[in-house]
Design goal:
mainly alpha; flat; 6-stranded antiparallel sheet; 3-stranded antiparallel sheet; about 5% strand; 42 helices; about 950 residues
Length: about 950
């Protein structure tokens, strides 16, 4: 029996349900399995047959019932010679009790392990107990909990182990607030115990805090060799057992090595990796991985990716200094992705820690001359102290004091000069302006225009201050959306930085990155990528540079690739690289939020809302850690989180996220360009969920505030609100009123290359409006333009692509182009692949109408019924108006087929929904009333 790794969780879930039934019920339940579960029918039947065989043979048939939901069964009583005192814990294989010998009261207590006694699993668990007993008997070490006894009593296998009255090593260190050096000394005891096991050709395979206890005397004890593996003399794995065949990989995922996750060959390096994870947690109070989501799959992805945050970066501030350098290097070596790159043994691991504690060079770091001299000085500090303390203290003190004083004076002078200059800029007492207007009417832009030229002349003697002021001033121009002045000052800043510092100085790289972002915002993405290539040549980003500038480079590259067809994977790789570097170097950096949020956007674009949600939550957490987070950035991330939750059918969560986004956007105090996008998505959500009055209130409050003429905002964000306003009117059947805002939005969006996804959606909406108003030729051109655009940029099964195609097909059918319409409807169903999206019932209903027109009532009824069923099970971010649209169409079909009762019932259902969604006078409500009247008249 071979079962794929990913099928085990579902197979065991089904098996548990079957085991609770009588044999006759099991057969019926097996036969009733559908969908993906049907693939597991044969494996489940084989497992049930094995159970029947075990019962016939009487194997373990008399075991006591130690079932998970009946823990009291073993809280009292005896097992063999053991008196059960109390339960210590339980896991996937059984329960552990504190027990004493009934026949020897003075004997020390033991930890008595008892398996859950389901007959199907008993053989596997008995085998595991036998393995643990035999392994422990071969291991005689004070750091390993010893086996006291083992046996079977009345069919119940049991294993008596040394009882350790202690707590996990991580809890012990935290409770005692141990310094780093003491934590390392405590960990050396773990390495000694594991090293002993390795010398006996035993690897533990499940090293984690729960299996490493510290007793009351401070002695470490290694527990639970139940999943340990014996190595052959040549180091090869022993043959697989029923345990491994039945259960797959025996491990705890958070502490497993990459080869355990991947199902590869195991060795002592497997334990070295888990020891590295344990040491990381012991030192940094957290695991080494930053998880996108708290699921087993995410843990496995993080481990196999190999992206480890340095302990000194992830640790509490009090421990970071002690971890930098040697300890970082030691832990990272133990956590190497490839087994060959790790320590060759637990002893080698321990030796490097001892060398660090003794201030000797460690193997995990290259031993350069400066590094060796530093270690020598630290190790023999007492020898050098007597000869050098006085002279060193005097010299070092004088140098440090003078340097600090000079630096402080320079920084203070620079800060004062910058403040004085900016105050002078905004005093607004320039006679050139006051001749014409009083100071209160002078704008910030005018003041900057008059004074920006002073920077290089007044600070010609102080280039560093001039560079900083040029950066501040250009940034102000950027916020004022004065692109030409922004570009000019940025160019001067770059030229001055090059002349003063040289080509590779960080200030020069920062200035170059600023120019890249300027290119991106002005839609010159080819030029942005050219500049990024030039920066790469200077600092070696693609070659593996690890710096904040490299992180910014990857973030900018992802943005520069946004409108490049087919670059989705490359863009995601760039974002993941940026995330990894920001997380490793500075998780409080403002751009970390942007990298996480953009990755969420990419997941959302790919139809992966769960992954998008997790990235947005990470981004919001990163933003809140910042001292002065940008309200606009947080608002947009909350808005995007609302989109993801809407697609995940978490409508309450989505509503809360949208409300938070609106609150944050308004709290910014100014109307940022992103404000329109926040209101747009919130109002769109409300309208699609049937809260029409609330949506219209938002539109009524916000539309008058848009730039004039409509859609003329410099960033184009305001066009998004116009588009959704037009979409709402169109959904309510008001095509004539929808047309002007849709046309205005389309003009703005189509002129911006960075809005390629919005362009397709806007084209479809405009096509639908024009089609509803009888402008068929224009509608068809826009439909075809949008569908061709979808084909170039998105998979056929994308929700937006399916929605566009089904609306085009409806128009073809309405204009009598039935063969073309049928082709499009069928293409929608193929691409949708039975997913619960709105395009499916609309396509089925379209095929029903075509079948009726072709004189095939059976096919018409079949498609109509499938449409009804699909409409009842829609999920994700769809407009609730789709359902009454299907009910009206199915009512009309029922009437045409002579089923007046069904027609009347469906029309009444559609009318009730349309009145709630769009009002009494809406076109949808009128159409439903007419159908009800027609069905009622035909009945009479």
């Amino acid at each position: 029996m071979e079962i794929a790794r990913g099928d085990w969780p579902r197979l065991l879930e089904l098996l548990d349900g079957l085991l609770d039934q009588a044999p006759a019920g099991q057969a019926a339940a097996l036969a009733a399995l559908q969908g993906d579960d049907a693939r597991l029918r044969a494996s489940l039947g084989e497992l049930l047959a094995q159970r029947a065989t075990l019962e016939r043979e009487g194997f373990l048939s008399s075991l006591p019932r130690l079932v998970r939901d009946e823990p009291a069964a073993c809280n009292v009583g005896t097992i063999g010679p053991w008196q059960l005192v109390r339960e210590l814990g339980r896991g996937g294989m059984g329960v552990v009790h504190l027990a004493t010998r009934a026949d020897t009261p003075a004997a020390p207590p033991v930890a008595l392990k008892l398996p859950f006694a389901d007959p199907l699993r008993a053989a596997m668990l008995a085998e595991r107990f036998a393995r643990e007993r035999d392994i422990l008997r071969s291991l005689d070490h004070p750091g390993i909990a010893a086996v006291r006894d083992a046996g079977v009593s009345q069919g119940q296998p049991w294993l008596a182990l040394e009882y350790v009255d202690g707590r996990p090593i991580t809890d012990e260190a935290a409770a005692r607030d141990l310094p780093v050096a003491d934590r390392l000394r405590l960990f050396l005891q773990v390495l000694e115990a594991v090293g002993h096991a390795h010398r006996q050709l035993v690897i533990h395979r499940d090293i984690k805090p729960a299996n490493v206890l510290v007793d009351r005397s401070g002695r470490v004890k290694l527990l639970d060799f139940g999943v340990a593996k014996l190595l052959g003399g040549d180091g090869a794995d022993a043959p697989p057992t029923a345990l491994t065949q039945f259960g797959g990989r025996a491990m705890t995922p958070q502490y497993a090595s990459p080869e355990q996750i991947a199902g590869g060959a195991l060795s002592t390096a497997t334990d070295v990796y888990s020891l590295g994870v344990l040491l990381y947690e012991l030192l940094a109070h957290r695991l080494p991985y930053r998880l996108a989501r708290a699921t087993p799959g995410a843990i496995e992805e993080a481990i196999l990716d190999g992206g480890i945050t340095l302990p000194s970066v992830g640790a509490p501030p009090a421990h970071r200094r002690a971890l930098r350098g040697d300890v970082d290097a030691i832990v990272i070596k133990a956590l190497a992705l490839r087994p060959a790159d790790r320590y060759r043994s637990a002893e080698a691991f321990a030796e490097d820690i001892r060398r660090h504690l003794d201030s000797r060079p460690v193997a995990a770091r290259p031993a350069g001359l400066g590094y060796r001299i530093g270690k020598q000085l630290r190790r023999h500090a007492w020898r050098y102290a007597a000869a050098s303390v006085l002279l060193g203290a005097i010299c070092a003190g004088m140098v440090a004091t003078l340097w600090q004083m000079q630096r402080a004076e320079r920084e203070a002078a620079r800060a004062g000069a910058i403040k004085d200059f900016l105050v002078s800029v905004f005093r607004a007492d320039d006679p050139r302006l006051l001749r014409e207007r009083p100071p209160g009417e002078v704008t910030a832009r005018e003041l900057l225009d008059l004074n920006a030229g002073r920077i290089e002349t007044e600070f010609a003697h102080d280039p560093a201050t001039a560079i900083e002021l040029l950066g501040i001033t250009s940034e102000i121009y950027g916020w004022l959306l004065e692109q030409q002045r922004y570009d000019a000052l940025s160019a001067r800043r770059l030229a001055l930085a090059r002349a003063h510092h040289g080509e590779r100085h960080p200030l020069v790289i920062d200035a170059l990155l600023t120019e890249v972002w300027s290119d991106i915002f002005s839609q010159q993405r080819d030029e942005a990528r050219r500049r990024l290539d030039a920066i790469d040549a200077l600092i070696g980003v693609r070659a593996g540079a690890r710096s904040l500038q490299a992180a910014e480079w990857w973030l900018a590259m992802a943005q520069a690739l946004q409108a490049v067809p087919g670059a989705g994977e490359e863009r995601m790789r760039a974002l993941l690289r940026a995330i990894e570097l920001f997380g490793r170097i500075d998780a409080d950096h403002p751009s970390y939020l942007a990298a996480l949020a953009n990755a969420g956007n990419e997941h959302l674009k790919r139809g992966e809302p769960a992954a998008a949600r997790d990235r947005y939550l990470q981004a919001l957490a990163a933003g809140r850690r910042q001292r002065q987070p940008e309200a606009g950035d947080l608002a947009m991330t909350q808005r995007n989180l609302g989109q993801a939750l809407h697609q995940l059918d978490d409508h309450a969560g989505a509503a809360a996220a949208f409300r938070d986004a609106e609150r944050l956007s308004r709290s910014a105090g100014v109307r940022l360009p992103t404000h329109w996008m926040v209101i747009d998505e919130y109002a769109r959500f409300l309208h699609r969920r049937g809260e029409r009055a609330a949506a219209h209130r938002l539109y009524d409050e916000t539309l008058p505030l848009l730039p004039t003429p409509p859609g003329s905002g410099a960033t184009g964000h305001d066009a998004m609100l116009l588009r959704s306003w037009g979409e709402a009117l169109l959904a309510e059947g008001r095509a004539a009123q929808a047309l002007p805002p849709l046309e205005a939005a389309y003009r703005v969006i189509v002129a911006r290359p960075d809005r390629e996804a919005d362009r397709r959606h806007a084209a479809v909406l405009l096509a639908r409006a024009r089609a509803a108003l009888g402008r068929g030729e224009e509608a068809q051109r826009l439909f075809r333009e949008a569908l061709d655009d979808y084909a170039r940029h998105e998979p056929a099964g994308a929700v937006a692509a399916c929605d566009a195609r089904v609306r085009y097909a409806q128009w073809l059918a309405d204009t009598g182009q039935l063969p073309a319409a049928a082709t499009e409807f069928e293409a929608v169903l193929r691409a949708a692949a039975e997913r619960p999206i709105a395009a499916v019932p609309l396509a089925q209903m379209g095929l029903a109408k075509i079948a009726l027109a072709r004189g095939d009532p059976l096919a018409a009824r079949r498609h109509g019924d499938q449409a009804l069923q699909a409409a009842q099970h829609l999920q994700g971010a769809f407009d609730l108006r789709v359902q009454p649209e299907v009910w009206r169409a199915r009512a009309a079909l029922a009437l045409a087929l002579g089923d007046r009762v069904q027609a009347q019932a469906l029309a009444a259902q559609a009318l009730q929904a349309s009145q709630r969604l769009d009002g009494e006078a809406a076109a949808a409500s009128r159409a439903a009333r007419e159908l009800m009247h027609a069905a009622s008249s035909a009945t009479r």
